[in-house]
Amino acid sequence: MAKAAFDEMSPDGAIREPYQTYDAWLKHQPADVLARRHRQADMLFRRIGITFAVYGDTSGKERLIPFDIIPRILSKNEWKTVSNGVCQRVKALNAFIADVYHGQEIVRAGKVPERLVSQNEQYRKEMAGFTPPKGIYVHIAGVDIVRTGENSFSVLEDNLRTPSGVSYMLENREIMMRLFPDLFDIHAVAPVNHYPNQLVQNLRFSAPAHVENPTVVVLTPGQYNSAYFEHAFLADEMGVDLVQGQDLFVEDDTVYMRTVEGPKRVDVIYRRIDDDFLDPRVFRKDSMLGVPGLFQAYRKGRVTLANAVGTGIADDKAIYDYVPEMIRFYLGEEPILANVPTYHLNRDDDRKYVLDHLGELVVKEVHGSGGYGMLVGPKASREEISAYRQRILKDPGMFIAQPTLALSTCPTFVEQGIAPRHVDLRPFVLYGEDITVVPGGLTRVAMREGSLVVNSSQGGGTKDTWVLER
């Protein structure tokens, strides 16, 4: 029998302490009031323009991510565990990336298989021997956390390349404060609106040496990118320029931005473009999104790229299983947050077990993202399982598998009223002079009953995440 999901508000019928004040308020709210606030939230999101595009959607229409007006609430102690755990993890992952592009001591020690580095398509040989300013590779990370019990938090995935979603965290809070100011009067909710200031401070800290007043820009692929709203939003909130590749040029290994007042030197680029498209002279020759000569300027130490080129080696799903060992190897500490048990299908025993239990497991492509290309065994048909089996047999090394987790649930406002829906959490970790994490992060919620898929591209929504300060 499958384990029942942990109800974060009332697991045994009794209201848990973090939710008690909210529950007392909620009991006095007529259903029509909540429905009206829900409609107001939708209207505000549409007015602000918080939409996203879905790759592969030929209609070209942008969608509104469903927003739930019932917050997810974490106690101060619960957040301390999550916060300490994700900061520890990012510190170790940064050390791993530095090691991979230098001595590869962890490989020499037999802690990570050599093939997972040398044969990994995310390994960038161009980064070998190069150390970015301050030794920071992972300036911004999004670590996906799942909860399965009272004190049980686990890491599902690390996002280190161009992690997205922080704009929804910030706007969710803004909308909630507009709609429910009385709730913030009676709850001591930790603020999140300082994130853009913290981000730009960290980026300036990571500027090349001897730059006194660094210029920071956000580099976007353009308005047709699914996360363009976030790129524009963050640039505006940080008070920096939003640029595309054609707005920049390189001269004498220095990056400049075209402005109406003439060229202006750029010192830090918060890039939301994948490695392959950054510089057509080094990576994809057909890229129209990047800047010719950018990588040479980067290697010469004349500009900082955040995140660093080659960080994908550390958030590849094949590497994920080794992160606890990285924490022990580099930090000499035990992991605060556990990994989800993972099967590697290039291992004979793992592959045999997974093929015998496909109907019970979640199988993912090693390089996949966004909820695409995965098999959720318990929800799949016989035909889907059979087809996926053939994909695995064709190239087993391209897949991992994990048990179907009983993701925790939170009360959610749906058409039928208030009902539990499965959630995960993406805290956003910033690496600068210190490693910090904004208190809360993005809670994603599977809006469909019984669904475990929280990705917005697959119909998931978002919630405001409250961390109580007392």
TrEMBL record:
<feature type="domain" description="Circularly permuted ATP-grasp type 2">
    <location>
        <begin position="71"/>
        <end position="446"/>
    </location>
</feature>
<dbReference type="Pfam" id="PF14403">
    <property type="entry name" value="CP_ATPgrasp_2"/>
</dbReference>
<dbReference type="InterPro" id="IPR016450">
    <property type="entry name" value="UCP005522"/>
</dbReference>
<dbReference type="InterPro" id="IPR025841">
    <property type="entry name" value="CP_ATPgrasp_2"/>
</dbReference>
<protein>
    <submittedName>
        <fullName>Uncharacterized conserved protein, circularly permuted ATPgrasp superfamily</fullName>
    </submittedName>
</protein>
<dbReference type="InterPro" id="IPR051680">
    <property type="entry name" value="ATP-dep_Glu-Cys_Ligase-2"/>
</dbReference>
